[in-house]
Amino acid sequence: MTGNAPLLDTALTLAARGIPPLPLRAGKVPFGNCRTCAKNACGGRPNMKTPGPCTCPHPCHAWAAATTDPHVLNSPQWATAWRQAAAVAYHPGGAGLTVVDLDNAAAIAWARETLPATRTVLTTRGEHWIYEGTMPSANAVRPGIDIKSLMAYARWLGWGSGAMASLPGAVRALALAGPPVARRAPKAVSAPLGGQNGVCRHRTPVFLDRGIAMAEQRITGAREAVHATVYRTFLAVLSTHGRCGCLTDTHVARLFTAAQAKGETPRHCTDAWTNALTTLGL
User: Fold this and answer.
1) For the packed helices 169-177 and 249-261, what is the interaxial angle rounded to 10 degrees?
2) What percent of the chain has pLDDT over 90?
3) Rounded to 5 degrees, what angle do the CA atoms 184, 192, 141 make?
4) pLDDT higher than 90, residue 84
5) Mean pLDDT across the chain, nearest whole number?
6) DSSP code of 44?
7) Residue 22 has what DSSP assignment?
8) pLDDT higher for 128 or 251?
9) Is-above-0.90 flag for pTM?
10) Maximum CA pair distance of the chain?
């Protein structure tokens, strides 16, 4: 065995469990690329749109270096990195997982009120909530909250406690909604929305709640062409409520939940929502 034996032992244990690890330097950062891959001269994985392992024999390209191959982890090319390593990280998406990184007490309180309980790992500043399922990673989806899944790495801090739950629509909705925006007082908008003469009525809770409830009913009542119904419903909701910052991740999660109850997969929901945003230029 070569390198930092305790960290390498941890990495090999993770690899045997199907969790692809990689070494981290001090400061919780990955090792730099080798000379061949420096400045991405090799056209490495970060330039590609699909997640996958790095083909370099060295621990290059951050998350893309993560591997479950014990021969790679024990290889001479990785020995120097293990000798200098300060911690072990892993690629959640490569293990079929998503980590909701909660960095402070307020973020943890929000998660406890909003998200289903799942396996929890204590961190130096907060908690990692780990779900089964993958999604695109996203930073700062809410104050103190990052999502680490595909094409990202998370520090390994132990197995945690609690039963692992399936990735909920509310977490996917966080990434789709983007960072929260400050709420503003109602005002006229530059273009009419939904034929309301340009006046934003969306901040009236009753108006918004009624619209979301009607959208849920439309999806639930679909007897055929469910894919098309979900897309048209998402499009209608966004055309009415998408430009004023009125929609919250809770509203989006309600729509995703209704669609998944009709047999739509989380991926179908994500694609339909993204397509609707693109169609409307949002």
Assistant:
1) 130
2) 41
3) 40
4) yes
5) 82
6) -
7) E
8) 128
9) no
10) 72
> 154-181 pLDDT, tens per residue?
999 999 999 999 999 889 888 776 555 4
Tell me the C-alpha distance between 141 and 121, whole Å. 20
Angle value at C-alpha 112, between 111 and 115, nearest 5 degrees: 60
Q: Taking CA 276 as the corner, what is the angle to CA 275 and CA 278, rounded to the nearest 5 degrees?
A: 65
**DSSP letters spanning 138-185:** EEEEETTEEEEBBB--EE-----BSPPEEPPHHHHHHHHH-S------
Look up residue 134 and give its two tokens: 């993958």
Structure token digits, residue 3: 């390198």
Q: Are 98 and 38 within 8 A, CB to CB? A: no
The answer to whether residue 32 scores a pLDDT higher than 90 is no
First and final C-alpha spacing in the chain: 53
- In this structure, what token pair is assigned to residue 34? 């080798």
- Token look-up 């055929």 returns 224
